[in-house]
């Protein structure tokens, strides 16, 4: 296990290179967020981070084997600081000096053992949320009551307020808002059923129209055929009448012609 841990640590990118990579050809003064998680700190201390990051508002240095904050530069605009899963055991007074406007601080998974270690945070007047989850201090009796009394400015400790109400998540609120909009628009199931019914009605109407058209077409064709047959019958009748007239004339003429012949 030791060899495996040493191997994984040796293969981590060092902190200076990671900062250069995260800059992406920007100057430090243009960066508002910086994530350095899982890189390798130098002897447990911060390196490569300077006061040139004057616009920095969010900084994350989780799992970098950090033991000290002594080399943290002044970051007056910093609001959120992630320091989870390191080996910090004290020296939190540096945060009051270097990051006076912090509102969120995550120290979960560090080596903080008692309330006196976090006492300097009293001077972070804007601090609203503090996370000490998985620190030894959380095993003490009346831990939550003690921290809320020690740091009266905070609203949330380990993600919950004094009444055990969970801290809101902005992303979840946005999703809930979208869901509410969908609910106001009407249940999806009902609308689909209405659409299906309307679609069936339209299909039935179309089929009825087609049947009517076919009926009209058939009746029209049948009328044409009947008319053609009647016309044919009339034509044949006229021909027969004409033939009969001709025969009649011949029959009438024959006696006359015979008489004329006799006279001759």
From TrEMBL:
Gene Ontology molecular function, alphabetical: histone binding; phosphatase inhibitor activity
Gene Ontology cellular-component annotations: cytoplasm; nucleus
Keyword entries, A-Z: Chaperone, Chromatin regulator, Cytoplasm, Leucine-rich repeat, Nucleus, Repeat
UniProt feature, compositional bias: Acidic residues: 160-215, 226-244
Task performed by this protein: Histone chaperone that specifically mediates the genome-wide removal of histone H2A.Z/H2AZ1 from the nucleosome: removes H2A.Z/H2AZ1 from its normal sites of deposition, especially from enhancer and insulator regions. Not involved in deposition of H2A.Z/H2AZ1 in the nucleosome. May stabilize the evicted H2A.Z/H2AZ1-H2B dimer, thus shifting the equilibrium towards dissociation and the off-chromatin state. Inhibits activity of protein phosphatase 2A (PP2A). Does not inhibit protein phosphatase 1. May play a role in cerebellar development and synaptogenesis.
Name this protein carries in UniProt: Acidic leucine-rich nuclear phosphoprotein 32 family member
PANTHER family, sorted: ACIDIC LEUCINE-RICH NUCLEAR PHOSPHOPROTEIN 32, ACIDIC LEUCINE-RICH NUCLEAR PHOSPHOPROTEIN 32 FAMILY MEMBER E
InterPro entries xref list: AN32, Leu-rich_rpt, LRR_dom_sf
């Amino acid at each position: 296990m030791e060899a495996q841990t040493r191997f994984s640590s040796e293969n981590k990118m060092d902190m200076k290179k990671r900062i250069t990579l995260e800059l992406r050809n920007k100057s430090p003064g243009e960066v508002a967020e910086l994530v350095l998680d899982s890189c390798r700190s130098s002897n447990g201390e911060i390196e490569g981070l300077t006061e040139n990051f004057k616009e920095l508002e969010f900084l994350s240095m989780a799992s970098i084997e950090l033991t000290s904050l002594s080399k943290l530069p002044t970051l007056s605009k910093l609001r959120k600081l992630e320091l989870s899963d390191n080996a910090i055991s004290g020296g939190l007074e540096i945060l009051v000096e270097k990051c006076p406007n912090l509102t969120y601080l995550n120290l979960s998974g560090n080596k903080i053992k008692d309330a006196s270690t976090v006492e300097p945070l009293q001077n972070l007047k804007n601090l609203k949320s503090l996370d000490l989850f998985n620190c030894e201090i959380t095993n003490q009796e009346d831990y939550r009551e003690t921290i809320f009394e020690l740091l009266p400015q905070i609203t949330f400790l380990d993600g919950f307020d004094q009444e055990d109400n969970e801290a809101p998540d902005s992303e979840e609120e946005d999703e809930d808002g979208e869901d509410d909009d969908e609910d106001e628009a009407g249940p999806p199931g009902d609308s689909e059923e209405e659409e299906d019914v309307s679609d069936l009605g339209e299909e039935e109407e179309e089929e009825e129209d087609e049947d009517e058209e076919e009926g009209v077409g058939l009746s029209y064709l049948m009328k044409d055929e009947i008319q053609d047959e009647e016309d044919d019958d009339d034509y044949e009748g006229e021909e027969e009448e004409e033939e009969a007239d001709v025969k009649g004339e011949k029959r009438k003429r024959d006696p006359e012609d015979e008489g004329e012949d006799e006279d001759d």
